[in-house]
Design goal:
By secondary structure, the chain is mainly alpha-helical. The chain has two helices and no strands. Helix 1 packs across helix 2. About 0% of the residues are buried.
Length: about 80
């Protein structure tokens, strides 16, 4: 596994303008609560999983096992 940088700076992420249906929002908040995460954490984890699955490499605030890939749960 290659690390992007040994000391990757922490930066804010400013997302805005997202609009979804009420039922999507309800499902998102429910799923996040079930995982013990905020909606923001849940969405960022989902984005990280998608980026990782597409082959992108990055460091992050994730613990081992947070980002599962494939059917075998490879990190």
């Amino acid at each position: 596994m290659n690390l992007i940088k040994s000391r990757d700076p922490i930066v804010p992420i400013m997302l805005k303008g997202g609009r979804v249906t009420a039922t999507f929002r309800e499902a998102l908040f429910d799923a996040a609560r079930r995982e013990g995460l905020s909606a923001n954490e849940f969405v960022l984890q989902a984005a990280a999983e998608k980026l990782k699955a597409s082959g992108r490499q990055f460091t992050g605030v994730f613990a081992p096992g947070d980002i599962l890939l494939g059917q075998r749960g490879e990190n």
